[in-house]
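Budget justification, computational time. The allocation requested in the original proposal was used primarily to generate structure tokens for proteins on the priority list. As evidence of use, we reproduce two of the resulting records. The first is shown immediately below.
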Amino acid sequence: MPRSTDFHLRRARPADLAALVDLELASFAYDRMSARQFRRHLSSPSAAVLLAEGDDGLLGSVIVFFRRGSTRARLYSLATSVAARGRGIGKALLAAAERVARERGLRTLSLEVRRDNSAAVHLYEAHGYRRSAALENYYDDGAPAWRYEKPLQADAS
């Protein structure tokens, strides 16, 4: 995983479970993953859990799902701690998610995002994701979502 001057990216390990759950609780008020779900994804061949960490601990995470027989990966979650925002961590995690999917030979990365999450919508659109569907009542609180997709080219960095 690439390194930055103030944080680095790596695959999450079981020892990261408590910090991942804390980040999840601090980042989302809806559709939160439980410790049990994280534990399952940390050991699953159909998921990649990556994180950004710095001297001050866990700064962000991204979860990507893979389905056997599919050419598409799904970015399930991307979270950045409030204290770490504005440091390029979301962008680095997004690039890492794309890289992991590309390394598996997948051709597309898709994701869903709350329509009212303007920072996330901007991040995805700025990095080549195109809106492909409107999803009504998508989240457990009834909020709508956008579905985005991006083709992953083998020669991309």
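The second record produced under the same allocation is shown here.
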Amino acid sequence: MEINNNTIVKDTDPKIREKSFPVELPLKQEDRETLENMLIYVKESIIPEIAEAKNLRPAVGISAIQIGLPKQLTAISLVDYDKNDNEIHYEYALVNPKIVSYSVQSSYLENGEGCLSVEEPHQGLVPRHARIKVEAFDMLQNKNITIKAQGYFAIVLQHEIDHFSGILFYDHIDKENPFKHIEGAQVI
């Protein structure tokens, strides 16, 4: 299946709001290939020449519902920085990821969030948990893993896992006051 901007399910399509279902393990070949293609999309989408040639919008994550499959599959590839400004590359092909614990402290991206499925701008702060713990099967490591995430990586994970419940980032924006101050939140 070819994934590009034309095949991504947009928020104007009710399918994007469907609930996603857990995926049976061990992975069937079809699910493995889907997840591989999703990861390829994310990795290639940030290379300008490839993105232009293949009609890809830049992304750091994608969930299966965005290609029309209501399955709990998500691929993530991003660069973040630790407290000493060292680069950290995160790359996962996750099956059935679940948030098992989270911090009380909130965080948000200073410039807001975006989504492959959302073409219209939605201004406002998107409150997320500052730190989360996720359990999942990672196809790349071929095992069950526990991820402790914070900062940008935690926000991306929460964004992708939200897709499994049919939730889009702008559902979290305060409709009355989109830039309402979030007490004690970590700004990223």
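A brief technical remark on that second record: Helices lie at 29-45, 48-54, 151-163.
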